[in-house]
Design brief:
Length: about 100
């Protein structure tokens, strides 16, 4: 196996490798609540190993922050995350970006 340049040759293995076959409709609903209604700070999705469906696993309330998102992620398992990052621009305008 060829070494990866970004990890300096370190091989990363995941506990539960899965391939997504479809996306659960609740994923879209929760994303709409995050983006349009601004009900959540972050969403964490996972691929269910049995059904091979992408499902929402963790929904971060609006009062949480980036540290809460990072602490909720497992160390050796893959997840998909969306985070609503709020910041102030150089000219003083409040804005946000989805990462």
């Amino acid at each position: 196996m060829e070494s990866h340049l970004k990890t300096g040759g370190e091989q990363i293995t995941y506990a539960n490798r899965a391939v997504a076959g479809s996306v659960d409709p609740s994923c879209k609903e929760q994303f709409q609540l995050l983006k349009i209604r601004r009900k959540h700070r972050f969403l964490v999705y996972k691929i269910d190993a049995e059904t091979e469906v992408v499902i929402p696993e963790i929904i971060g309330p609006r009062a949480t922050n980036l540290k809460d998102l990072i602490s909720s992620l497992p160390e050796n398992d893959a997840r998909y995350a969306i985070y609503d990052h709020e910041f102030t621009t150089f000219d003083g305008r409040p804005t946000n970006k989805y990462v």
